[in-house]
Amino acid sequence: MYSILKAQGVLPLVTQINIETAQIVLQSAADAGIKIIEFAARADNAKEVFTQMIAFKKANNLDVKIAVGSILSVDDAETFHQLGADCIVCPHTDLEIGNYCFKNNIYWIPGAATLNEILHANKLGAEIVKLFPADKIGGPGYVKAIRAPFPNLKIMPTGGVTLEESNLKSWFKSGVVCVGIGSNLFSKEMLLNLSYEESLNAFQNLIEVVEKTRN
């Protein structure tokens, strides 16, 4: 999973979507060459939508992995793992969730804010740590500062990552492995009436701007 995220450079996130929109997102992501996306399980119908996403992915033989985000408890981690999640993403670091993921061979990306929290997540076995909310705790300058004494930290900032070249360039220059991007890729309004063409264009543009700013 690490190699996929590092190569892609970005983990696009969608949340609060209906089944039809979820299918559009999956199909367009696969067609654009996206290898992994995150579905944040925040809505009441998240399990139902995710179940349909997995069924659609299998029926159409789509080569795209699905990480499930906003996982707050080990029960939710177990539920979504059994439903077919390829990766579990959390806004925080929870030992129980981590242990469940390791025992069941599912990739775990916990969330952290401070240097000690990031190091703690690493000690628990996390390879990549989600820096959240990245823009509120210092942005790229913060990442650069904490990586100075710990250059091997593998960080994925989420929160405040935009499609602007200057924004992305500053994050990659700070040494992050990849970035997480959600509402700045698909706004709530856009998701309400998302077409396949709009979604495909969004993913293609995302890949293009990430490759441009990373090199």
UniProtKB/TrEMBL annotation:
CDD domains: KDPG_aldolase. The keyword Lyase applies. Belongs to the KHG/KDPG aldolase family. This is Aldolase. Gene3D superfamilies: Aldolase class I (3.20.20.70). It comes from the Bacteria. InterPro entries: Aldlse_KDPG_KHG, Aldolase_TIM, KDPG/KHG_AS_2. SUPFAM superfamilies: Aldolase. The lineage of its organism: Bacteria, Pseudomonadati, Bacteroidota, Flavobacteriia, Flavobacteriales. Keywords: Carbohydrate metabolism, Lyase. Homotrimer. Signal peptide: none annotated. Pathway: Carbohydrate acid metabolism.
